[in-house]
Amino acid sequence: MSAWLAIIAPAWIAGSILALLSAPLGCLVLWRRMAFFADALAHGTLLGVALAVWWQLPMGIGIALVSVIVVLGLVLIDDERLPVDSVLAVVAVSLLCLGLLALTQLTDQQANVLGFLFGNLLELDWADLPLIGGSVLVGLGLLAYIWPAQIKLATHEALARIQGVNPTRQRLFFMGLLAGFCAIALQAVGSLLISGLLVLPALTARLWSASPKQMVVIALLIAQLGVTLGVWGSIWLDIQTGLSIVLILAILFFVALILSKVLTAKFWKARQ
Fold first, then answer.
1. Which residue has the higher pLDDT, 121 or 187?
2. Are 178 and 37 in contact (CB under 8 A)?
3. Domain count of the chain?
4. Least confident segment among 103-107, 189-193, 227-231, 248-252
5. How many whole angstroms separate alpha carbon 125 and alpha carbon 143?
6. Domain range for residue 77?
7. Which value, to the nearest 10 degrees, does the dihedral of the CA atoms of residues 73, 76, 81, 85 take?
8. CATH for 78
9. How deeply is 176 buried, as exposed, middle or buried, from its count of CB atoms within 10 A (0-12, 13-18, 19+)?
10. What is the pTM of this model?
């Protein structure tokens, strides 16, 4: 048992630390209706990794560069004739294809493609935890700083403008925070599943919460449960850790959805 814990404990702790940021950030993604944007940024991390390896730069710089390009590109291609969600879907797919192409053709990372796509949390060791913890702490600090303005924008943008909130600046802050989270979460769940780690706990919490604060707390508990069951489940099932975590979160969502519908139906039946 101690031998297993020596391998699993760093991954388990790292995932739990990551969930501290993913839960409130995921709630904000839902409230701001930016799930497709988060998906596009998550897929862009793959291209960022490829560019960083190709140019022999730190991985974070490559991901930051692609994130800036994505934000500027979305501003340039903004068109009232095109639905925003459709544009973001096209951008996400394009970034994923470019990232895979660059990673497999321009670098020697072909053997690591599955890890970049689905994550490999079990490769983390104790030496990685301070960096992850510090990064999450900085992310939580930035999130706390922009939180009041973001809530105002999510509630009523016109009123937020009157109260002095700058939507453009806050959008850039939020996009930067999302990009940073994608860089941290890449090894945990991979490029394809980052949006699942963000959105699923918040979406599940929305079914059972009556206030924003309650939603964040429930999302945090669900994220922690998903990480715990996902890490241990990946060992038991011998599958990618990222796949296991997101699959557990998806199961929790569908169970919560079915239970909420059943309880709602029973409530209305009792009222009749």
1. 121
2. yes
3. 1
4. 103-107
5. 27
6. 2-271
7. 30
8. 1.10.3470.10
9. middle
10. 0.88
